[in-house]
Fold these 2 entries.
Entry 1:
Amino acid sequence: MEKSYLFAGSGGQGVQTLGVLVAHASNEEGHFTTFLPAYGGEMRGGTSNCTIKMADEEIGSPEEKLYDNVIVLNKPSYDRFKGRVKKGGNLFINTALIEDAQADGVNIISINLSEAAKEAGSDKALNIVMYGLVLAHTKDISLENAEKVLNDKLGKKEQFRAVNKKAFDIGVNASK
Amino acid sequence: MAKKELWKGNEAMSETALRAGCRFFSGYPITPQTPITEYLAWRLAEVDGVFIQAESELAAATMLLGASIAGTRALTATAGPGLSLMTESLSCLASGRLPAVIVDVQRGGAATGNLQGAQSDYNMVTKTLGHGGLKGLVYGPSTVEELCDIIYDAWDKAEKYRTPVFILSDASLGQMMEPVDIKPFKQLDESRFDLPYVIGREQSEKKVIQDTPYAGPYNTMSENLDYNYRKYNEVYEKWKEDEVLYEEYMMDDAEYVIIGWGMAARISKSAIRNLRKKGIKVGMIRPISLFPLPEKPLNALDAKKIKGVLVVEMAIPALFYYDVKAQIDKNIPIKANLHCGGYLSQVDEIEEDIMKMAGGK
């Protein structure tokens, strides 16, 4: 087993946090894991992205030309990375910012993150909605481990824990 | 087995340095080294260590020299142009054969270059530390865990041989998160302050640290340097026997051999697995110690068995490639797969190069 993920969005959408959560969840699951952030000039506006690989053996390259899962949170990221999905792979898009997504030979999984985050109780929780949706859809990580990591990493304050739990559940339910 | 924790390379390495006994860090922040400086700024204070953000890399490396002579396990880290500024003191460390650890989180390109990973500082530290032609031990790890393993033992080696130890990390390895076991604290005893190079605690105390014809390693009489450096060279030669580190990967039946170090080597592992699925018998020799270079396994490659060697390296022009080429049987075809300036080695290109060697399309 070797699975690859590419997460992208605009700075401030919580893309790196989303990637870090998935990486920790992968480690919790017992997979070999790499998390590689794109850094430098890209952090000042524009797109922010990171790649994750999880496998049952030591991981060589932390990057790929094509990914099993590409997750894009805004239009510039969609334009830049929509061609980086493997045939038969998954392209997760945020319909609040990406209209008329099209890609041949890949599964498009759509969610309006703005509405979902509002429903969860905080605009900022959009990355947690996507966290739930992606992991529930790919099934590379058990939802128990996904939720445990969410609590371990972001659950120190009660009020955030409740919002994150709701956002996570909305994402999970959206995958059904 | 306890579950490993996910750590960023820079931070895992910093924590491990501390646990290896490092109690002094002087540095100047520069991407992608900055997280090391950031981490040690608060963490060293928790273990009564000394952290100094210097006014420049030049000063940082000079402070490292002082801390080393005072008997502390001392560390500095830098990247890109910061390394150029440090060379004056690197030369001085090598000249006095003073133990200290230097980490270069390599970034792309010359001058300011960019912030992505590269391997282009290879020659600058494996050939000589600064001016004067002297050496230090140099390592090129390829995973976060290996980065930690190397720094955990770095001061033991540094003190055993009285030498600077250099670790070539890079932007990718430093920023990447991977599972790692953080090692326990090493217990150091007071006897380390009796080490011969450590200045006396009493101001009047003088120590003879080398049996040079004239006093000390910094005496500039020609006879002195000639005598001294011959002795140094004996130490460097001994490293070739005792301090060589490398990994052989899928070499048992290999007909094609990839040779690389650090990030380029781990990226090549993905290509090797893909090629093996296609039935191509390819393996890898991965030097972990870059000085001393593992010459024996390279010399041992048999032209009757090995049909081609591909050196994968993130430097243009090639640097490491020529060191490998010098050790390989002239009857084995050898090629290089190169990228630089923050452009990481590419799995598909490595596969293509091996396929071409194997006579495929």
Note: Helices of chain A lie at 15-28, 75-81, 113-120, 126-138, 143-154, 158-174.
Entry 2:
Amino acid sequence: MQTVTLDHLTKRYGGRTAVNEISLTLGEGVYGLLGANGAGKTTLMRMLCGILEPDGGRILYGSSDIARLGEDYRAMLGYLPQDFGYYPDFTALEFLRYMACLKGLTRTEADHRIPALLGQVGLAGVGKKKIRAYSGGMKQRLGIAQAMLNDPSLLVLDEPTAGLDPKERVRFRNLIADYAKGRTVLLSTHIVSDVEYIADEILLMKQGRLLQRGTVEQLTAAAAGQVWTLCTDEATAVGLERVYTVANLHHTAGGVEARLITSDPPAGAKAAEPTLEDVYLAHFADEEGQ
Amino acid sequence: MNLFVWEFKKIFKQRSSLVTLGLAFALCLFFGIYQGTVSLTYRESPDTPREYGPAVAKKEQALIEPWRGPMTAEVIKAARDQFALGYQPENLLADGTLEPQVRSAYIRPIGMMMNNVDAILSKVGSNYNTYAEYINAVISYTDEEIEGFYEARDAYVENRLREKLDNEQDIQYFLALNEKVETPFYYDWTRGQEYYADTVGSILTVVGWLLCIAFAPVFAGEYQCGAASVVLCTRKGRGKAAAAKCLAVLAVTVLWWALCCGVYVGCQVLLLGTRGLNCPVQAGFFVSSFLPMTVWESELYALVLALVSCLAAVSVTAFFSARMNSTFPAIVCSLGVVLFLPMLGSFLKIEAVQKVLALLPLAKDYSVLFNTQTFHLFGRVLWMPVVLLVVLPLYMVVFLPLAGRIYTRHQVR
């Protein structure tokens, strides 16, 4: 399987740099792209899918520039954008057949693949229903199905779990974990738990830059000594929020247990095992919209 | 199912497009029926009920039957004599007009013929104050004057051209066309047929505007709803999808043109038949025209012009649709080009500007056949109706590839 290489990838919007000199290589497995709003995740994914031209750098599939590969690259690509539009008067079956046609699948391939995918995303019984009548979660699952329709070797999913209920999210995670064997899956999300269990590698993006990358274990290990718990009373707990990044406040019979992200803990705080959410908060607690 | 069929289907799946296309069809159906019924009306006298459509056509065709054929000097003389026969003092009403029954029997069958004869031979330019003045003028034409009718018409056409045009080359061009007008004119009932021929261009122009509205979302709708970001990532989602979209737009345009023409001409044939269509336009309302065409030929030209105009207009729409990020600005821009710019041209009254704006899609209709607008290229005169048939298809050649190019390079920001 070919690797995807991002080489000093840069994108600017006016004076703002949305993606700043990002270089990385994606091989087989699931990559979780984590970052706050405006971190540049979507811009990066759009460039990776060839629908947004970079201002600098290049993207290689194997050793070839994707801009030169054109149709051949797109044939290997599956993409679910964050704000994907549907054709409301199409049924799910019609929509997927149309997408199959766009993706160059034969009629036989489409007839074989579409029912299977609809089953996998839990839409088997509603394929003949117009998309207009679908809920947000159903549309999202249809979006996932279309992205996987051509059995892509590079699957790019931008906020794929938005609008999915917990049960659907679990189903999605399992689907992606199965699918990723021998393929590359890059998914962005705000929901840390979505990638925590299935991502082979986490990419942390902040202000257009790749801040950190590694496995969940590597990232959490790097955060050791920055996560603390402190049992205190309610009034003190409120005061803590003004000074520290508080990951969690748990009300107990004896008071409040606060989980703090800091390298300078208050007296009485006990070191805790960091989770990926703690890592995320350590980097993005100061970001707007978080 | 291939991509073209999907894109074709998608146009009909879009509610707004479907409504607009339905409106275009309804418009043609309405006017198809209207022209052959409400528009074609006759009332013999204030005391009798008004007759409509096919009944009027049938009656007038029956009245004209004895006069149907080449409009020779002998026929015109006989018509003049029939006017004189009918216009007797005992047939006159108190207001100086003729008894309705007498008018129907004597005047109505040859009314168009004598109107045209009078338009050419009249010394006062057919400006009569009373009906009696008109009848007296018609019955006073001498045999000699009537025998010289076609020569007088040619002279009349030439005078009008010289009054209107400064360029001798243009004048000679139109005189050469006039020489091709077959004489004697074939006289028959043409009234209803000319109503249809006269309005088909305008109606299909409106159809063209509606097609522009219907196709505005073809690319812009994809950007607007966010589907473009997925479609553009697919193997065939760029060049092939753009080509399929353009082809689908052209195919639906041709289909809708055929449907609209079909329903309009179908109503014409069903309500009025085909009688009168083979008369030269000069036998009807355009006696002084240089146009060597029959009524059906002129109507056919209007239909063909409407087709190329619609194809050009939707090509412009496709371009704006690919260029804009949402449907509404695409509608505004394309209507700006095919509707407001030609209107502006008619207000500006600057000939050069008018000539250029006349080359825009949907700027001209059937009436262009009776205009003397020309262009000059390498010393040759190019008449506007011919130029339009050559220039309008170029919009497709230019704007559709441009639309495709813009779409395939669209950046999802």
Note: Chain A touches chain B through 34 residues (CB under 8 Å).
